[in-house]
Write a structure and sequence with these properties.
mainly alpha, single chain, about 80 residues, rod-shaped, about 0% strand
């Protein structure tokens, strides 16, 4: 992957996880204890990080398969 892509994916991931934690804070902040709120925010961010990791893995896998397919089709065209 190009370094620009990694930086963009990193920034989007960090901002998404931050917004997820803030959304949880807005929903349950003040209704439960601060410790419970922090635990729920941590759980939501961990689940979000796993989901983002799965999505990134899928993008990388699809790109590698596509690049291999394109390289194979170029070899077929040359012969």
């Amino acid at each position: 992957m190009q370094i620009k892509e990694i930086i963009i994916y990193g920034l989007v991931g960090i901002s998404s996880l931050t917004m997820l934690a803030y959304t949880v804070h807005m929903f349950i902040g003040g209704m439960v204890s601060e410790q419970t709120e922090n635990l729920v925010m941590l759980g939501a961010v961990l689940i979000g990080a796993v989901v983002l990791g799965i999505l990134a893995w899928d993008v990388i896998r699809r790109r590698r398969n596509y690049e291999a397919y394109m390289a194979e089709s170029k070899e077929d065209d040359n012969t």
